[in-house]
Design a protein that fits this description.
The protein has two helices and six strands. The protein is of the alpha+beta class and about 150 residues long. The strands form two sheets. Strands 1-4-5 form a three-stranded antiparallel sheet.
């Protein structure tokens, strides 16, 4: 077999091009997987935080039925509630229960309206149920009572 008859493989340039393409494909895959892992972590964080909400609601109800006498059991329930709120805050879902602020449909859910001569219409008078999270990472809006216009 003569040298001219020998099968020819890819050229050095073709091999370099294949290598560069493979390297770029690898980098794109690595970046895509990193984004997917981050998204999965955020979704799981939101799911876990959402599971905490009924626990907090029940603690709030228990504290709402407590007497003015700071019984040790009540203080214990309050400490557990505060710890649960701290966990949600650490997960990226801070608690919102502000009164005296303008109603914001992105952060509040109006459950009632009542006239209040001391407040401008649309002002949050009372928070019935606290909200958690902010912006696109909101577990739930705060359920609020809003000042109605004097009629």
């Amino acid at each position: 077999m003569a040298a001219d008859d020998a099968p020819t493989g890819p050229s050095v340039e073709e091999l370099e091009d294949r290598w560069l393409r493979a390297r770029a494909d690898y980098e794109n895959l690595r970046k895509r997987l990193a984004r997917e892992v981050t998204a999965a972590r955020d979704d799981e964080r939101e799911r876990v935080a959402g599971d905490w909400l009924p626990v907090l609601d029940n603690l709030e109800r228990a504290l709402g039925h407590a007497t003015e006498d700071p019984d040790p059991v009540i203080e214990g329930v309050r400490a557990v509630r505060d710890q649960a709120v701290d966990v949600l805050t650490a997960l990226g879902f801070p608690r919102h229960e502000e009164t005296g602020v303008p109603f914001d449909p992105r952060r509040h859910e109006a459950v009632a309206a009542r006239p209040d001569p001391q407040a401008a219409p649309g002002t949050v008078l009372e928070v019935v149920r606290a909200g958690y999270g902010e912006g696109l990472r909101q577990l739930r809006p705060a359920a609020v009572v809003v000042a109605a216009a004097a009629g």
